[in-house]
Design brief:
The protein has about 475 residues and is α+β, with helices and mostly antiparallel strands. Helix content is about 25%, strand content about 40%.
């Protein structure tokens, strides 16, 4: 009679037997996938049984006790099945699978072809397999491939994964092979491998690509070429690319996911990437939860209390300002003596800046928002303000503040000193036809920058008219679509 210790209790959570059972299941499942991918249209009934068998076996392994004499032969059989079919895959076929830029590349057979001698770590989960990246740093990792690996007679050097999440500006994830191949070798030996499935477009002298965009129905459609630069989150692109570095005689074969790359898309196309490397949502209400020091608020209240001219006189304001770039949409809301404003720089990319300020001149809190989890909120930790009692020519307004970035990691500090001197009066309607009364012109200096600001008496805020510095040159601002709610 067999003793209890001769059995592996597979139903116990996290038991060695459970891990062994799952390994057997994964190997059989990988074997079925390998056969299916390389003999499409044949052995339909056998493949169906082979794919179904691991699921039946998993249920039985999880609910029964099996003796070692049963499990060990099953493990050997699953290994033989996997190894036998893995050897049928050429490296050229691996690269053809790779050129689809989806999870069809991540099969046990393909990984075995890239890993002769089993010198590299391989992970297998639910029939999908990949070379283990080890520790990823900043979404990047590289695996040096065995020296004897070649594709079309060209040595394969490495496999690289890269990723960049820029929040509202979009995300970029690529996985790429690096080969020893100059332009002539790439054009004569590599391109023919990939162009049978779909032609590649020549983007420039040494770059060939095939681009697809993701439709609302979830289907990829050939399109292109994919846009360059920041894409935002309006669309998702997938691109296969072959590029040659003539200086190093190296060729990169690359797949990329770009734009609105979601965790769900990565789970489907990149099973090799751990969830820790997925795009991260922005923590909500970071701006609201970052408090301005009471001392800074008290300093400002005391300065404003001396003259009612410095108080805002509207509830909501919206306008478009143009100068030196694309039009910017500004929305202001009165919050007591302060102004809560949002400047939208690029609607398609979601680029904006949120500010809490006095009179649109002295920032107390600001955050440049591009959808990243580490958006920094800059806060006036210290503040001193000197406001003139009237706005006669020559009167001076001065403030000093120390701005401290409150980010996921402690940010930098910046000392700001701005001095503004009244220089005259302008009819406010010359700035925008809907404005009434006078605008007091003030010439301001901050470091090496000079500005001309207009204090709109009717509204109780400053609007910039001109900015000049050595770095940026001179910019003049024009206002349109101005709407005021009193």
């Amino acid at each position: 009679m067999l003793m209890y210790h001769q059995y592996i209790p597979l139903f116990r959570p996290f038991s060695p037997g459970l891990a062994l059972a799952r390994e057997i299941v994964n190997r059989f499942l990988g074997c079925g996938n390998s056969i299916a991918s390389h003999f499409p249209g044949h052995f339909e009934m056998g493949l169906a049984n082979l794919r179904t068998f691991p699921l039946i076996m998993e249920t039985r392994l999880m609910t029964r006790l099996f003796p070692h004499r049963v499990l060990i032969p099953m493990l050997v059989l699953s290994t033989c099945c996997h190894s036998a079919f893995a050897r049928t895959v050429s490296v050229e076929q691996v690269l053809r699978d790779f050129s689809r830029c989806d999870d069809s590349f991540f099969t046990p057979a393909n990984m075995a072809a890239l890993n002769p001698g089993a010198t590299l770590a391989v992970r297998t989960v639910k029939g999908r397999a990949w070379l283990d990246w080890g520790e990823m740093r900043n979404k990047e990792a590289e695996i040096t491939l065995p020296k004897r690996l070649e594709v079309a007679g060209l040595p394969l050097r490495s496999l690289i994964s890269r990723g960049k999440d820029i929040g509202n500006l979009g995300a970029y994830y690529s996985w790429e092979f690096v080969l020893e191949a100059d332009r002539q070798a790439a054009e004569s030996k590599l391109l023919p491998l990939f162009e049978a499935a779909a032609p590649l477009s020549r983007l420039k002298q040494d770059v060939y690509a095939r681009s697809e965009s993701l439709g609302q129905d979830g289907q990829w459609r050939q399109d292109g070429p994919a846009p360059t630069g920041l894409m935002g989150k309006q669309q998702t692109w997938r691109e296969f690319q072959v590029s040659v570095d003539q200086m190093l005689d190296l060729t990169t074969i690359k797949c990329s996911l770009m734009g609105n790359v979601t965790p769900a898309l990565l789970m489907q196309h990149r099973p090799d990437i751990p969830a820790t490397q997925y795009p991260v949502a922005v923590p909500p209400l970071r701006f609201e939860r970052s408090a301005v020091p009471v001392s800074s608020l008290q300093t400002l209240d005391a300065a404003v209390a001396r003259n009612s001219v410095w108080r805002p006189k509207f509830s909501r304001l919206r306008y478009v300002v143009t100068g030196g770039g694309a039009p910017q949409i500004v929305t202001m809301t009165r919050e007591g003596q302060l102004i809560d404003s949002t400047t939208l720089y690029d609607e398609s990319l979601g680029l904006s800046e949120r500010r809490l300020s006095w009179a649109n001149l002295i920032p107390l809190k600001s955050m440049f928002d591009y959808g990243m989890p580490d958006n920094a909120v800059s806060i006036a930790e210290t503040l001193s303000v000197e406001l003139p009692r009237d706005l006669s020519p020559g009167s001076v307004l001065t403030y000093r503040s120390r701005l401290q970035e409150q980010a996921v990691q402690k940010g930098g500090e910046e000392d700001v000193r701005r001095q503004c001197k009244s220089s005259g009066v302008l009819a406010a309607h010359r700035i925008h036809p809907s404005l009434n009364g006078e605008a007091v012109l003030m010439n301001c200096e901050t470091g090496d920058a000079q500005e001309q600001q207009a204090y709109i008496m009717e509204l109780g805020i400053f609007l910039p008219l001109m900015h000049r510095s050595q770095k940026t040159g001179q910019t003049e601002y024009r206002y349109s679509d101005l709407n005021v709610e009193k």
